[in-house]
Amino acid sequence: MSVQINFSKRNLFKNLTEFFDLFSENLGRHFVKNDSLINPEAQVVLKNPEDRQIIENAVQEMKNNRQITRKTITLSNNRTVTLSIE
Amino acid sequence: MEFNIAFNTIFYICIFIIPGILLRRFFYHSEFSKEFSQGNLLERLMWTILSSIISLFLCGLFFIGIRFYADLLPAISYTTVKNVFDLLGANELPEAADLKPIYTDFLYLIIGIYILSCLFGMLAHKLVLFIGTNSRLSFFKFKNYWYYFFRGKVKNATNDRKRKFWYTDADILVDQEGKAKMYSGKISDYYIEATQNQLESIFLENVRRYKFLSKDCNLSVSDLREDEVSEKEKKLKNPLSRNFELIPIPGDVFCIPYSRVLNMNLTYVTQEKGISRINKIIWGILNILYYAVIIIPFTFFWIEEIPYLNFPAPFYKLWFFLNVIFTSTILYANLETWLIEKKEVKVKDILFEIIAICCFVSQFLWILGYFRFWPVFATSVFVLLLAAAGLDEKKNNKVTSKKDKAI
């Protein structure tokens, strides 16, 4: 296990912000409704224009040909996702 | 204008109205917040009083539940509550000597009722969403039906638990000065009007405009160059091709007023979860444990003597509660990453969180009276800040924030 130690203000704020996010997201979601209109995971993927294009093409293909009920796509980070539409 | 209000009226409002208002406020939150103020005044007052009665009944059950494993605060007894009510019923203030030993406990009781009313409201909100979505009973549904339509929680949509909702793709036909235009995009937000729950406006992301091509190429593309014509002809001759093009519209959010909408077609895009049954069961058990770990220290505020724990002041109870929440939340987040998101959790990636857990756990040393407050607290804060400043965020690319989580 190798851990890089590098003291900086940037690290301090980054780590503390992430730590705060951890609490606000994990604790907050038990009390506040978290079923957003765009799933947070999907939002992360859709931020990447390349992945967004892949997803949109897959969805359009499924919309145009209703015989295709599901479609497996490979995202830019080499992860495969199986999408389906209703 | 002279306006007299008796002291006991204020007290009755605090006991019989405010819990109901809080319960209803938290029941109708977020997208349903406009339902809170719908209906006439009498109707709302009746619902508020009924909600208060339900809230007080549930609070009663909560305090009775605590009595199974510990003694409640002395003021939280039938005799004390009755005496206070009798005095206030006669529009008199209690004697200072009678009030002094119980007022802090009584204050705890009132604050407890208010906090619990909020929690019951949120719980009821979640329950109604769950039952309304899964049972198809219209009785358990909010009036804002757009919530269900925009999330695929409708009768026609398959209720497959193996799939996870991603987003709703909307094709919206809009009237623009007599001409119909169609837009496609992901629904990112919407607003409803205050009284009738009618849609006011829809907000779309990644919007594209439909540009329809005529089936007769000669008519639609007569003015185009030769290469453009051949490209269009190719598209039209291909059986899988469409007779339209999607033109991207630059910008972040596209707003469509509902008054202009002629029609809309919604497509629910879902993703397969791929979580094993065993992981689901383990995750369910862990969730129950997480809630139990949070709820049990929460009850300490209304307990006089806690078995095996000795808190010199209420401040210690608060710190104990916060430390339990912080520690269990860090563990919960990392277990979720490992079990549900199926990501490998490496020690070096969560090193800062491990150090943070150690800092939070060390607080129990002064809370439980083993060490003095300042040495423990100051050391923990110093270590936490040192770790935050020293651990390189590039190396320790951790999984804490949902914003940074890739699927």
Bin the helical content of chain A. Answer: 40-55%
Query: How are helices and strands ordered from N to C of chain B?
Result: HHHHHHHEEEHHEEEHHHHH
Structural class of chain A: alpha+beta
Distance between the ends of chain A: 46 Å
Task: Provide an overview of this structure.
The complex is a heterodimer of chains A (86) and B (407). Chain A has 86 residues and is an alpha+beta fold. Chain A has helices spanning 9-28, 40-47, 49-64; strands spanning 70-74, 80-85. Chain A is elongated and about 55 Å long. Chain B has 407 residues and is α+β, with helices and mostly antiparallel strands. Chain B is built from 14 helices and six strands. In chain B, a hairpin with a 6-residue loop joins strand 2 (179-192) and strand 3 (199-212). At the A-B interface, helix 1, helix 2, helix 3 and strand 2 of A face helix 6, strand 1, strand 2, strand 6 and helix 11 of B.
Write the layout of secondary structure elements.
The complex is a heterodimer of chains A (86) and B (407).
Chain A: H1 9-28, H2 40-47, H3 49-64, E1 70-74, E2 80-85
Antiparallel strand pairs in A: 1-2
Chain B: H1 7-16, H2 18-27, H3 41-66, H4 78-89, H5 96-99, H6 103-134, H7 146-149, E1 163-176, E2 179-192, E3 199-212, H8 217-220, H9 226-237, E4 244-248, E5 253-257, E6 261-272, H10 277-299, H11 314-339, H12 351-362, H13 364-367, H14 373-390
Antiparallel strand pairs in B: 1-2, 1-6, 2-3, 3-4, 3-5
Helix pairs in contact in B: 2-3, 2-6, 3-6, 10-11, 11-12, 12-14
